[in-house]
Design brief:
The protein contains 20 helices and 15 strands. The chain is an alpha/beta fold. The protein folds into two domains: 4-156, Cobalamin-binding domain (Rossmann fold, 3-Layer(aba) Sandwich), CATH 3.40.50.280; 186-402, Aldolase class I (TIM Barrel), CATH 3.20.20.70. It has a seven-stranded mixed beta sheet with strand order 2-1-3-4-5-6-7, sandwiched between helices. Strands 8-11-12-13-14-15 form a six-stranded parallel beta sheet. It has a two-stranded antiparallel ribbon with strand order 9-10.
Length: 506
């Protein structure tokens, strides 16, 4: 068996054609040091055929993949298991949110050998050096690593401080292009004809108790300079004629200074862009800032509203100053500057009793209606609460006390119910009753009928008018039960809800 490496991106929901920045960054960490290949599950009809073909050559030893919860596990789990069965000496190395947050069930599976716990820019090459006998460094001293020692005890090493993002090796775009043409990842979306996916920062400086990012980055954030971002975008603009960018950072807008510098640089390039941020952070930007950003191409922002209830916001430990009134005021500001606010809400958090849980759901439904009355263009994304709370938090204790627990075997994560759980469509939580879920989902259907999302650019003209007409009576009078006529139209036109599945692309 040789020592070549497969870096694999498992198929995501609906196989979105977005540039897999995560695995490209992994490749950058070992580029020029080890021989490796990329396999993108979103671009392969049968990824296993390609992966098994590589291993059949006898030249490959390492199967390395990054895993998000949900659909990606449908390939990650059986592929890793098969490789271990067929090639017992092969080494499976996992990274990503799922592996870090569920490291016990991964390592106890018997076929996941090592986990990169967070950024692997230093960890991954150091681990390979030790495994290949090129370094005498003890595994226990390699930061951001989780593994089992000789006694079968799980070892989680010290976290590494986030690295200066501008000093990291450049992404091997042209090498990746030899496996999958970069052109194929530049999708047509509602923002542009060629939409580029980019990652400009690492981590998040906040400690929301429901967020999977918190345990990995410990409220730390490091970002590329505006000039570095612009250099990369300029390259793709000149070579591939991109006209839109999705910034897939956990929090793109953390630094006002960086955002404004970037806006100045990109002002004359006719590039529309979208990013994720926090309302209480961006609310500190001046109206002049926001107008300038819009002129520079900022078309939409994804914002974690979560709830309009101040009491519940405290329960979520958002770690900022956000309030229900601030959300209302902010969506009004967004209307005035012509930037679409894309607001996510998390419904169905645990409460002291069933009545309280349901009351909070109804409260947020009414709050969402208020938001739409203020700014009809505001996009609304509704998630059913799926527990990923920070261990030790008040919210964590609440879900434990309520009787919730995660699967004990890795294979259970690819059962249909748990896949939907990770997509926040089926919570599997004991405090959320079927009638509550029906209420949320039926309201969402009516809402998406009366206010079809702008991001699904196919729904326009007569389609949009008909949906609004059919849904009007229901929305006006709050009659959400059995919205079959809306569901039929959504199904016929293959309507896409905002964000949950990403921007629709062709």
């Amino acid at each position: 068996m040789g020592n070549k490496i497969i870096i694999f991106n498992p198929r995501s929901a609906n196989a979105k054609h977005r540039l897999p920045n995560t695995i490209i960054q992994v490749g950058a960490a070992i580029h020029g040091k080890y021989d490796y290949v990329f396999v993108d599950g979103n671009m392969e009809a049968d990824p296993w055929e390609k992966i098994s073909g590589y291993f059949a050559t006898g030249e490959f030893k390492y199967f390395c993949l990054t895993v998000m919860p949900g659909p990606q596990l449908k390939q990650a789990i059986p592929y890793a298991k098969k490789i271990k069965e067929i090639y017992p000496d092969a080494i499976n190395i996992w990274g990503g949110y799922f592996a870090s947050n569920q490291h016990k069930v991964c390592l106890n599976s018997g076929y996941v050998d090592y986990i990169i716990n967070g950024p692997g820019d230093n960890t991954f090459p150091k681990l390979l050096d030790v495994l290949e006998g090129k370094s005498d460094e003890k595994l226990q001293l390699i930061r951001n690593l989780i593994f089992k020692d000789e006694d079968g005890k799980i070892v989680q090493t010290v976290k590494e401080a986030l690295l200066d993002q501008d000093s990291l090796p450049p992404y091997p775009y042209e090498y990746f292009n030899t496996f999958y043409p970069l052109e194929n990842y530049l999708a047509k979306t509602f923002m542009g004809q060629k939409t580029f996916a980019y990652h400009s920062s690492m981590g998040c400086p906040f400690t929301c108790s429901f967020c999977a990012v918190v345990p990995i980055y410990n409220a730390k954030w490091k970002a590329k300079a505006a000039s570095t971002i612009y250099k990369d975008l300029k390259y793709f603009k000149e070579k591939y004629q991109i006209d839109a960018v999705e910034f897939h950072d956990n929090n793109f807008f953390t630094s006002r200074k960086r955002v404004m510098e970037f806006s100045k640089l990109v002002m004359d390039d006719n590039i529309e862009w979208w990013g994720e941020g926090r309302i209480d952070t961006i609310n500190k930007y001046s109206d002049e800032d926001l107008h300038y950003m819009r002129k520079a191409g900022c078309r939409m922002m994804f914002l974690g509203a979560e709830t309009g209830n101040d009491e519940v916001l405290k329960q979520m430990n958002k770690g900022g100053t956000q309030s229900g009134q601030m959300i209302k005021d902010f969506v009004k500001r967004m209307k005035d500057v012509d930037i679409i606010p894309e607001l996510s809400f998390v419904l169905g958090l645990p409460g002291p009793d069933e009545k309280k849980v349901y009351e909070q759901i109804l409260w947020d439904i009414n709050f969402i209606r208020e938001i739409k009355a203020i700014n009809a263009d505001a996009e609304i994304i509704i998630y059913l609460y799926s527990p990923v709370p920070t261990e030790g938090s008040e919210l964590y204790q609440q879900i434990v006390d309520a009787g919730f627990s995660f699967p004990e075997k890795l294979e259970e994560w690819i059962e249909p119910s748990w896949e939907k759980f990770d997509l926040r469509r089926n919570p599997l939580t004991p405090w959320l009753k079927p009638y509550m879920i029906d209420k949320i989902q039926n309201f969402e259907t009516v809402l998406n009928g009366y206010y079809p999302t702008a991001s699904d650019f196919r729904i326009k003209g007569y389609k949009k008018s008909l949906l609004k007409l059919v849904s009007g009576y229901r929305f006006k009078y709050g009659w959400y039960k059995f919205p079959y006529e809306i569901k039929v139209l959504h199904k016929i036109w293959k309507y896409r809800q905002p964000e949950i599945e990403g921007f629709y692309s062709e």
